[in-house]
């Protein structure tokens, strides 16, 4: 689908926050890797649920409960079709990426990880794809191995292949790095792990909002992602898992909805996906997630990724015109994230000045402290673009960075 500049202006108008003023200036929102803005259709859908459908799911025979249940389950179908899962019940709702990883670490870990087993992650993982495995390794006396990265921020694949062995029971890797933008060769990672009989989890937090993922083609055992980075609300996300594995895994949390029968002698558990969805879920969030998926379907991944590639190329070119610019993360395959340092100016100072100009960037370690240590830096300034951003906004950021430099007396 070919959209014109006019169309993008129209689409931008669907996002109320993109029309906000910050410190009297038009907002420039470049913190999309942290969370995306929400279109009116998502906001309206959540309001509609609370105004007309509010009820608990799966439990009532009454009209409202059935309406809410249908809407809640409709999202599952939308997600199934978006990631091309074989079965609807392979889609488990979570609070987000973090909960999805913790669920797998606890449940898969409980059943399949034993003393001396090895788990492989990488240097560029988000803390949420490090700490749950450290905790599991401690509980089970398992060993955590880490794939190093090169100076461009790419995984050293030959090192990965060396780390793999029959002892490897799980490989848990980020598809697209939130702090560098690196897009990892997940197909190769998955195929090599599979040969060793290891299970594979892909952290899809930064890919699902931007690019289509087909789980039957890629064949990860697990894929996790968050709604709030894909135009949907916070507090909701997805764990996709292969039916065969999910069926073998014990429940993560006990409570209502996840049981079949309860007695003090023996409790039996519900089928997938409910086995992993204890308690009253985030019904409004799940329904809002469905509206987020419908929004992506309307715009189309092709349009989203083409626009973001254009913004990345333009941003990289313009940033490189700035003297003292050091881009951290220059992988061949990159998403629309530019992390950088400017002379010796502290990222926090730059971020604060940019904020005064109405420009929202993220500064700090981006929940990837080991990666920052690898690059021997305290953190970066990160501009992460969504398809709704524009080249004019990038120009404003470049002007803002020149202003930051001059305030620090840099040429
Ligand atoms: N992994 C990656 C790559 C991320 O970017 C994030 C969010 N910054 C997470 C995991 C954690 O996601 P959430 O906070 O939504 O659970």
Detailed description of the structure:
The protein has 411 residues and is α/β, with parallel strands linked by helices. The chain has 2 domains: 5-30 and 300-407, Aspartate Aminotransferase, domain 1 (Alpha-Beta Complex), CATH 3.90.1150; 44-298, Aspartate Aminotransferase, domain 2. Helices cover 41% and strands 16% of the residues. It contains 14 helices and 17 strands. The protein has helices at 5-13, 40-53, 63-83, 97-112, 131-140, 157-163, 186-195, 215-218, 243-248, 283-299, 301-320, 347-356, 369-374, 391-407, and strands at residues 21-22, 25-26, 28-29, 91-94, 118-122, 143-147, 168-174, 199-203, 222-226, 237-241, 259-261, 268-269, 325-328, 337-342, 359-360, 362-364, 380-384. Strands 4-10-9-8-7-5-6 form a 7-stranded mixed sheet, with helices on both faces. Strand 1 (21-22) and strand 2 form a beta hairpin. Helix 3 crosses helix 10 (283-299), helix 4 (97-112) packs parallel to helix 5 (131-140) and helix 12 packs across helix 14 (391-407). The longest helix is centred in the first third of the chain and has 21 residues, at 63-83. The chain starts with a helix and ends with a helix. The model has no long low-confidence stretch (mean pLDDT 97). The structure holds 4'-deoxy-4'-aminopyridoxal-5'-phosphate. 4'-deoxy-4'-aminopyridoxal-5'-phosphate binds at residues 33, 96-98, 126, 128-129, 174, 178, 203, 205-206, 226, 367.
